Amino acid sequence: MRRAVIRTACVCAALVFAGAATASAQVVQSFQVHGGAFFPRGFDARPVDDVLVENLSVAEPLLFDIKDFRGGTIAAEWGFGLGRHVELAAGVGYYRKTVPSVYRNLVDVSGREIEQDLRLRVVPISGVVRLLPLSDASSIQPYIGGGVSALNFRYSEVGEFVDLNDFSTFPARYIASGTTPGGLFLAGVRFPIGGDIYGLTTEYRYQWGVGDTGGADAGFLQDKIDLSGGNLTFGFLMRF
Predict the structure, then answer these.
(1) What is the pTM of this model?
(2) Which fold, 2-239?
(3) Other Cβ atoms within 10 Å of 26 Cβ, number
């Protein structure tokens, strides 16, 4: 898994450097950090073989909401300007959220809730292209773009579970991890701070990707987990 992530990062970086090499000697580089919130794709829009959908739909469902997986995200990105209106960039982000759940209709023999923790972590490694119709970095710059990413993920279900054959409870820890390809679309605005060197940014990007849980062999009710969703971030940009 780590080798796959490293290879993907190297490919993204190589694409950025290759594009920069074709530009003029006056290449403008940039570095930005940003943070905000991740909004996972809602229940109705998720595929039917998604493990979270199945956890909510089985005969004895868990009690949580897809919205509970909304959480904070941070990212850093390095970019190269290609001419006046195009920018290539490579970056990495981080999102992690733990959602507590219980069985909706079942309790243990003592009348207590049967509790689990559902944990999801996603580390997207992305290569993007931005199109900036306004070339003056000392004024407000709207932009749109898109790209590809490698979504490194880890999903787990940890806690007490029910054997539906005899309704006994047992502790368990189910874990799935891997790296899956994805696509993304983005749009944003840059605001200069006293010139063209520093700026503030606000950006919305939507990512698509589906991870493999291993299904029943790994202890999960379905073999997929949808990693798609929107990211709304605010950040700081420096050009050099």
Answers:
(1) 0.88
(2) Porin (2.40.160)
(3) 7
